[in-house]
Amino acid sequence: MKITVRRGDSLWAYSQLFRVPLQLIVDSNPNVNPNALQAGQTVDIPRYAARTHRIASGQSLWSIASSGGLPVDALPLLNPTAQPNALAVGQLIRVPSRVTSLVVQTARPYGYDELQEDLNRLADIYPFMRHRSIGSSVMGKPIPEIRVGAGRKEVHADASFHGNEWITTPVLVRFLNEYLLALTNNGNIRGLVMSPFYLATTLSLVPMVNPDGVDLVVNGLPAEEPYRSDALAINGGSYDFSGWKANIRGVDLNNQFPALWAREAARGPRVPSPRDYAGAEPLTEPESQAIADLTRSSDFSRVLAFHTQGQVIFWGFEGLEPPESATLAAEFARVSGYRPVGYADSSAGYKDWFIQDWRRPGFTIEVGRGVNPLPLSQLEEIYQQSLGILLAALYQ
């Protein structure tokens, strides 16, 4: 919610007025000098959305604020040109509305448009949430990364490396919404107060690594050529894309990383395929390149890649993982009920590469049970299990 600064105002005063932590207001306005506010400039206030209200007979700014349980001084900040003592019947003003519940709608088939819709809604209400593109998919869809927090410890989680594992995306988006809501309402999640995590940790989320593959599974063939014809040919002429894991070019993005890549490539398909084709060489695809570049330019202390299915947590790679990986995996297993597995007969995955090159904890978390794509009926159970893991990644 944007307000207009008055002479003598301060961000600290806004923090007191709107009951929002000062740090969140400062972080919501990175281009504003907190020690030199200028009258007339606009400032973003998290936790609130502005709605339009039409003045009725006998109403004043103060009566509107009082009836809505709002700070009396908030309305003039949203309506700097309105005359408080001369409001006209039918006049439109802006009224702040506290956001005290989730705003995302994740219990639905969740493609790229749904992700963008929810992220835009969250960015409007929580402007301290940093939202940027780390690259683009084959079809040109920007791949969003979200960052929340001011701490030195960087924790990364991503989802939907595989098209038919799209149910992992709404898991991360709902967690993001719950985290933002708790931060701005001085709340907690499962009894854990969130504000200390904001100050100690920077959370990085890439909710949809493979937007083209997800849309292919959720929405069917794209209209654009050559992607439509090529994907249909790769799928053997079938319009059933429920088994499709790859990106739109038929490359499995989680077999793309230079961690014993040749071994993985040798046992998979040699040509583009709905699943398991590792590409002609490592990191040929823009989506895997985007994640690799993000990781190289960051200082992640641990990474979590959410996949489906099996209710398993993979945490090792060739004995290169640090001792703390086992400790973290045990805590993840405790809070989720999933089974921790140190080693699996696979390679060239994102967590494999992270462990190999950084010698830091990396995890592949296989949520849910059944045949991909998992049904929405599992989403709530999957979310509650994943929530424990995501919280543990912050507090451990």
Keywords:
eight-stranded mixed β-sheet, two-stranded antiparallel ribbon, 396 residues, alpha/beta, Aminopeptidase, single chain, Membrane-bound Lytic Murein Transglycosylase D, Chain A, elongated
Rg result: 24 Å
Helix content: 25-40%
Portion in strands: 15-25%
Widest sheet: strand ordering: 5-6-10-7-11-14-12-13
User: What is the CATH topology classification name of the largest domain?
Assistant: Aminopeptidase
CATH architecture of the largest domain: 3-Layer(aba) Sandwich
Task: Summarize the helix and strand pattern as letters.
Answer: EHHEEHHEHEEEHEEHEHHHHEEHEHEH
Structural category is alpha/beta
Q: For this structure, what is the CATH homologous superfamily of the largest domain?
A: Zn peptidases
Continuous helix count: 14
Total domains: 2
Pfam families: LysM (PF01476), Peptidase_M14 (PF00246)
Domain LysM: 1-45, 51-95
Active site: 366 (proton donor/acceptor)
Domain Peptidase M14: 108-394
Task: Summarize the structure in words.
It holds the Pfam family LysM. Keywords: Hydrolase, Metalloprotease, Protease, Zinc. This is LysM peptidoglycan-binding domain-containing protein. It comes from Paenibacillus arenilitoris. This protein has two domains: 2-98, LysM domain (Membrane-bound Lytic Murein Transglycosylase D, Chain A, Roll), CATH 3.10.350.10; 112-213 and 282-395, Aminopeptidase (3-Layer(aba) Sandwich), CATH 3.40.630.10. Helices cover 35% and strands 18% of the residues. It is built from 14 helices and 14 strands. The chain has helices at residues 11-18, 22-28, 61-67, 74-78, 112-125, 168-184, 195-200, 211-219, 227-234, 261-266, 286-297, 324-336, 350-358, 379-395; strands at 2-4, 42-44, 48-54, 92-98, 130-136, 142-148, 153-159, 188-189, 192-193, 201-206, 300-308, 312-314, 339-341, 362-367. The strands form four sheets. An eight-stranded mixed sheet has the order 5-6-10-7-11-14-12-13, sandwiched between helices. The protein has a two-stranded antiparallel sheet with strand order 1-2. α5 runs parallel beside α6. The longest helix has 17 residues, at 168-184.
